[in-house]
């Protein structure tokens, strides 16, 4: 079992920045690909970013590429999402998720993630 707790959400103006953090507890953090997803009101949950076990490889959705970065600190069991140049369309609940290591990493598929956090609200005002 892995427990994930997100923090860092809030209200920010267009063009501003926020940094989300997710702390994991339970099983070995380094055995999990970590991802961030988001869900806006009335929409399906969607992939935002993911990072490999060591942190050497990252993936981003086209909508956030160049504005968001993802990082992990395996010594602190933490994954972070730095969000810059925020837009109103980034408004959503952001979820941290963990996918147990497999040979093929399905980084963008919600159904391949084994554990989820409770989410943190991000609101970008225009």
Record keyword descriptors for this entry.
126 residues; mainly beta; seven-stranded mixed β-sheet; four-stranded antiparallel β-sheet; 0% helix; globular
Q: Overview of this structure, please?
A:
This protein has 126 residues and is mostly beta strands. The protein contains no helices and 11 strands. Strands 2, 4, 5, 6, 9, 10 and 11 form a 7-stranded mixed sheet that branches. Strands 1-3-8-7 form a 4-stranded antiparallel sheet, with no helix packed on it. A hairpin with a 6-residue loop joins β4 (32-39) and β5. It is globular. The protein starts with a strand and ends with a strand. The model has no long low-confidence stretch (mean pLDDT 96).
The number of distinct β-strands equals: 11
How are helices and strands ordered from N to C? EEEEEEEEEEE
Structural class: mainly beta
Q: What's the pLDDT, averaged over the residues? A: 96
Stretches where pLDDT falls below 50 for ≥5 residues? none
SSE topology:
Elements: E1 2-7, E2 10-13, E3 18-26, E4 32-39, E5 46-51, E6 58-60, E7 68-73, E8 78-83, E9 92-100, E10 115-116, E11 120-125
Parallel strand pairs: 2-11
Antiparallel strand pairs: 1-3, 3-8, 4-5, 4-9, 5-6, 7-8, 9-10, 9-11
Summarize the structure.
With 126 residues, the chain is an all-beta fold.
């Amino acid at each position: 079992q892995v427990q994930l707790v997100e923090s860092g959400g809030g209200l920010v103006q267009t063009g501003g920045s926020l940094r989300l953090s997710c702390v994991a507890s339970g099983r070995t953090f380094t055995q999990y690909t970590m991802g961030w997803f988001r869900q806006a009101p009335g929409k399906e949950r969607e992939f935002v970013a993911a990072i490999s076990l060591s942190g050497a490889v990252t993936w981003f959705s086209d909508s956030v590429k160049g504005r968001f970065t993802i990082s992990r600190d395996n010594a602190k069991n933490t994954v972070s999402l730095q969000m810059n140049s925020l837009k109103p369309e980034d408004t959503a609940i952001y979820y941290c998720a963990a996918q147990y290591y497999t040979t093929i990493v399905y980084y963008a598929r919600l159904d391949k993630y084994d554990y989820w956090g409770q989410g943190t609200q991000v609101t970008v005002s225009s």
